[in-house]
Automatic annotation (TrEMBL):
SUPFAM superfamilies: ACT-like, Tryptophan synthase beta subunit-like PLP-dependent enzymes. This is Threonine ammonia-lyase. It comes from Hyphococcus lacteus. It comes from the Bacteria. Transmembrane segments: none annotated. Its cofactor is pyridoxal 5'-phosphate.
Amino acid sequence: MKPQILPVAPPTADDVRAAAPRIAGRITRTPIIHAEKLSAMTGADIWLKLENLQYTGAFKERGALNKLLLLSDEERTRGVIAASAGNHAQGLARHARALGIPATIVMPITTPDVKVRQTRELGAEVVLVGNDFDEAKKAASQIQTDRSLVFVHPFDDPDVIAGQGTIALEMIEDGPRFDALIVPIGGGGLIAGMALATKDINPDTEVIGVQTALFPSMLNTRDGGDRPTGGNTLAEGIAVKEAGALTQQIVADSVDDIVLVDERTLERSLSILMNEQKVLVEGAGAAGLAAIMDDPARFAGKTVGLVLCGGNIDARLLSMILMRDLARSGRLARLRIQLLDMPGQLVRVATIIANQDGNLIDVGHHRTYSDLPAKMTCMDVTIDTQGRDHLNRIIDNLRKEGYEVEIAAY
């Protein structure tokens, strides 16, 4: 990677240590818990840092607050502006209001409604512009110039980076000695701060970044790759097309590896955290577990810390993900069954399913829109099962009774 001329000096581990007492009492010192079920599933000894339990539901409060506390009186009077996909926006809005600092937030129009609503409720002026972070940032720069505001970057700012790094200090103080910390990467502020603190205290602890395969911006800067960036990702909190200049340098110096995870693994990881660990996260918050699920052999037997960086997920999206996961596991299935168009057939099909302990939860009957013979019809049934083996037994019994059955794709 070509050396860059940086606009400001990057932070140090001392800056992270100084940020900890500065923000103490204004943010939540979130718990770190031993995830016994996840450990049993993956073979790694997994510990979870629950940053989804911050007041605004994400770690971003730390860096935003540290930055605000270091502003001069003149800068506080002028007010601040930020471009954010949501979590930085809420953290900045919350602490700006508490400190009496006017805040304007520019958000992409694709930002989930829950994050837009919560940011407004925290007292900030919200401007919706652009389809992604980069377009929102461009608009924010113009507003900053027009209004003489102080720009608070969500990741490429030394004070923000130092604030985020306090997570690692807490994990090291409150948890076991880690073989590895796995940290989500968007622009790189979180992993940069955590890497500074971790390598200063425990140089042997691996710091591994994880990005969604749709937005491999930091990995591209690290290895000179030209992987495309863009697309609709579940992990919109780390959907950044261009990594920061400061964060690139710190990552190059202090981060051991960066891995990519695909959307299906992110979905599965989010569902596992919800169903098995009873922890609600957004897509970015599931990235660390996704990295372990993608390569369990790499982490087998190791003590690994994961940062559940946020829990702000739209309820409709969460519902869809959980239902899709049920379908993929065979616990929810839609079957298309061909049958004679005559009385009693629906009852007969329902009886076969019930006799196999299946739960029939939805039925659709199709006569007109079908290319079957006129005396035949088909119906779609949605059933609740105990899993893939149970589903297969139900299908086998329907076929033994002479019915043609297809299972919907998942």
